[in-house]
Batch of 2 targets.
Target 1
Amino acid sequence: MWVLLAIAVVVVGFALRINSMLVVTAAGIVAGLIGGLSPVKILNAFGDGFAGSRSVTVFIVTLPVIGLIERYGLQHQARKLISKLKVLTTGRLLAIYLLIRQGTAALGLTSIGGPAQAVRPLIHPMAAGAAERRYGKLPEKVQEKIKGFAASADTVGLFFGEDIFVAIGSILLITGFVDTTYGLHLEAIDIALWAIPTGICALLIHGTRLLLLDRQLDKLAREAKDAEKEAAR
Amino acid sequence: MIKVEWFYWLCGIFFVLIALQVLNDRSNPKRIGSAAFWGILGLSFGYGTFVVHKQAPSWLLGIAVIGLAVLAGSGFPGKGEERTTTPAERVHFADRFGNKLFLPALVIPVVAAIFGAWLAKVKLGGGKPLLESGSATIIGLGVASILALILGMVLLKPKSPAVPLHEGRRLLEHIGWTAILPQMLATLGLLFNASGVGKAVGRVTDHMIPKGSLIAAVALYCIGMAIFTIIMGNAFAAFPVMTAAVGWPLLVQQFHGTPAVVFAVGMLAGFCGTLCTPMAANFNLVPAALLQMKDQYGPIKAQIPTAIPLLGCNIVVMYLFAF
């Protein structure tokens, strides 16, 4: 039972915001020592674990070509394509972004979106712009709501889209861990196929909530306006 | 037969080239330590081949890996000055190349899918598979990246063949040591497993469910994945623990669930936890900071009402399709 202390190391380490690599290494050593492994065996485990899980890091071979097309304006071109959707409301716009984000992530194009690449420069300004058309100057509560949901559309789309693509880290981790530990031979594509039902549920649930966002914003904007009138009286 | 180790060597060579570039990058204030990080990582990728084939001792690689962790903990690798195009140049290029820019990006998933779905089943004369078995995806990703890069070079005609390497380094320096965190977490999973953490959690969870109840076991695995992910901030870290505790012994061995469904949906149940936790800082706190929100938990608050019903969906999907 004492071996559960290794989990405590992870929790405390992350909570104290110590570098994750150090936390993970320390937790591994603690688990090994309490579990009765000799120091050489622990080092062997680190070596074997690293060598056996190299597949998780193979995604880096895509970086040179992605960097290359970014250099020649990929994000600008994407912005141009998406800006043709100007006539939409905040909720509908974010719902469409969710669909695009999830769809492209399912094709392995996870680098097309992201909070820094897309939400901050592109999606949030469009969503806020759509709201301004409707309510005029935005009360703070409305602004915060739009920001939170803009970020959420990106994250939900990514999480439940990327697992449908065969070559993503989480799938490779599943096959890597299960194959080395239990001697199975799982093909990544089978794991990817079984991510589809949950992906559809995620799209329906979060998409519906995004479409209902317009009503919530209506209410928040109305309340803010009433409060303003009260204050003016 | 096309072997997966060739592509690990490709990664290794890439990291070593990055290390050499970093070493020559005087704009990087931490260039020595950063070059050491990428260099050790690159050599470890090649050395790993001999470890897997039991031709070299693993402990040596273990020391290198712990060395990487110590370097990461000491603030390496650092970033150099970014030498890429300006926003104005990018607008100009985007107008010139238009939607052609998407072509190399589209080649990657298409080629990777062709390898994973079709070439994986092709046999050579003598019955040997064309691609090393169980590695079709990795091989596909490697080949796809090379083809996409060739297409990109032909379409965009950069001045020097070193341009993609510099651009790759720009992205890699942004990612930093986080690039190998998933690999470290997989290693941690192995150590947890070897020292019996999974079994210990299993003993704890054993008392929590009625014996022989399938739906209870499925719910325990999914909810356990979500809770563990909330605590650890990463579904990758929770997966090996909950799988050793519940997923493998109970759902696969005892109830004969289909492994692919159990593990795929289990991981997604963990993702529901990621949506709710400030521990997953890069997904939840960074966007709030980027958008300059007053409430740093704003994105989490927008996500929790999606995460809870979605966790329920995962339980239903696993119960219906895995057994």
Target 2
Amino acid sequence: MKKVLLVAAFFLTAAVTYAGGYRVSLQGQKALAMGHTGVAVVNSSESLFFNPAGLVYLENKLSISAGVSGVFSNVAYQNEETGAFARTDSPVGTPLYFYASYQATDWMAFGIGVYTPYGSTVEYEDDWAGSHLVNNIDLQAIYIQPTVSFKLSEYFSVGGGPIYVTGSVNFNRNLNRTLTDLDGNRSEVTIDASGVSNWGWSVGAMFSPTDRLRIGANYRSEIILEAEGGDADFENIPNSPLTPFADTQIDASLPLPAELSVGLSYEFCDKWLFAFDYNRAFWDVYDSLDIDFADPNIPDSFNPRNYKNASTYRFGLQYEATKMFTLRAGYYFDESPVQEGFFAPETPRNDSNGYTAGLTFNVGERFQIDASFLYLHFKEVDASYEGYTENGEVVPFEGKYKSNAFIPGLGVTYRM
Amino acid sequence: MKHTVKYIALAAIAVLASCEPEFEDSVEDAGFYSSGDANLSTFVAVGNSLTAGYADGALYITGQENSFPNIMAQQFAKAGGSETFTQPLMADNLGGLLLGGVQIQPNRLVLSVDASGNPSPTLLEGNPTTDVGNSIPGPYNNMGVPGAKSFHLVAPGYGNVGGLPDAANPYYARFATSASSTIIGDAASLSPSFFTLWIGNNDILGYATSGGSGVDQTGNFDPSTYGSNDITDPNVFASVYSEQVAALSAGASGGALVNIPDVTSIPYFTTVPVQSIPLDATTAATVNAQFALYNSQVLPGLVGVGVISAEEAAARMVSFSEGVNFPIIADDDLTDISLILQGPPFNLPAPTANLLGQLRQANADDLVVLPASSVLGTTPDPSNPLGVVGVSIPLEDSLVLTATEQGRVATAAAAYNATIQGLASANGLAFVDARSALAQVAQGGVAFDGGVLSSQYVTGGAFSLDGVHPTPRGYAYTANLIIDAINNTYNATIPKVNIGNYGTVTAANN
């Protein structure tokens, strides 16, 4: 068990991706196939993430779910005034999840989950038009959540647990639009912090007034990753007291916002299940990305983000087609937390529509294979980032963005 | 079965990886930008240092990469132009030039900060590696040759290494196709489909930067007799210029002709204030006492005998007062009275007579050149603390461009510009009014998304540390001007660049 966890954690460090801000909604193939609904769905140990209160309703003594997604995400940028054009060449992300739940008594279940709800990997070509904002970023956060779930009555259950987060960030950008060394190489900085950890918590409740209807709510707390003593590596800096950029340490903090989910699921015509989730992500905590350089000669970097709280509306449908196959489909609308004038190319997210589908193949009594597919569609958007200044003057970075993401996923469920 | 699954998976990954998001109207699509009636498939730029990308007193790789023709070529490529634009790149970013291992052109200037924190332009140290003897024969798309005057473009042998240093140009000697080739001939051999021609600046600039030390050759139609600081006769200019336009436009779909900016637009002439000598009342009185005889007796006496006019006498009066004063200067347009002063009735000793020979006090119409900043107010002879440049020693003629000399420069430039504009309109070519555009930069500046582009030395962003040539940002501004003119003339929609993305002066300490 411990070994499985370690292996999972190892793979998770390669985790990545997509959704409003740097939220990555890929926390279970069954749920994802249904539009990533699950706060009021009980069908696997994925509930550990979606609503810990649901774990106690699982029918088996032991339920384990694990899976991986392949994130193929692309961003294109263009500025029609200058003809500038860029395409990201981001590596394929492979976020994973692992959940195990154990039914201790008929009123209590324990579990542990490892998942990656936040992350981002975006790679532009070095020195592209927006390189003074970002060349590349790789942000990872691994959540480890021991969980307990209690059935308080026939109709009502609660669950929750502490969350331990360990994260890392690697961020590279050019110092400004023009500074170079004598040979014309753009001056740049790489910020690297890893092993940044902190604690948070998750709590949920589920109400099942009838056999068919479940209503759920879940709240996952905000966690601020405080990177202290990270490294700032300056490259291609001219040899001049006018440009006093020497390698130093940094302090910075990155918020992983709280998320509230409420929803319901309803079984009908025996084989059908409908689910609806509403997520509210409290992004307003992400006001500014400030980097404090230890070296007093280097001015601190203030990068306003000014995110707003954002909602996601999720709809899912499940159909138990045969004994062998369960089919799922879903849709969600993901509202971007980015406000007008703060569209930074490091997380180029406008509102998106997610279309999902998937199936479960019952290999035997105990073993299932879960497959899902997500297509995330972003409309072409005219946007600008107005948080960058030169000599005290705001220099907007403007252009059109067009993004998409294709995310196939595969998972397994084991029950006994 | 297992293999099939694997192949399907691999195929799926390949498909997903290739599903790039596409804009409804992508700037990458052919036809998004149009070159209109112009054919941009072979773009050739002909001219002098400005075309070559010269900056900071030198030609070096990053400067060349930011030459206005190279910036334009990259924008042309977005409108159907060629992706390649060749330039005779230097071997390094130091910028110095060698001939047979001996340095003949200095390295570039960089902005260095001294121990007390004062920034100043300083020659970048290092051993340059570009030797004129290492020929890299062209022709190149960028046929800009630093130092070239209008008539040099059609002069055979201008690229003959054997003709150095006086009869040839080291920059052209590096990449001339033969010892007898001409710049315009090499350019025309590329069969340009589109061209820019910006020449004539050096036909007045050498005269101007040398404070009018050369000769105004207006009326002399033989450029082979000209010195390097002379003003080219406007008829000579018109003749060679029309020849060049004809050669370049012979097979071209079009081109752009750029006119000559005013020298008063560049920091080389506007940085050092002419009123620059601070004196207290006592010192002013002492100095005035030394010029009392000159003012009250010598000048009226010379007027009396008809050697100089009353007007000239008035201009030659020297008077200092408490506050910031105009320096005394030597002006070779004044009557030389040094010999007369040595004779009766003045009988002045030769050194004093020579000092007063063409002396006057500067006035608000004079322009003091940038190098004068390191001379004004200094005492060149340490044993004589009273010998102060500008107070008791006149500022050399070569460091002041007087109003008279400015007039000659302006007259010649106006004649050249009339030729340029006339030939542009006669040949249906785009006309680029760089003169007006640079005047705008000099007078108040041009706003861009990161501030204001101005001619202020070092800080204005438009001019490099030599005070004459643009920075990359200044060249980007130039490229935009020319693109504007091309778009207007040829119904094209070539996109312009954001000049805020281009750098200015380079800071570096040796």
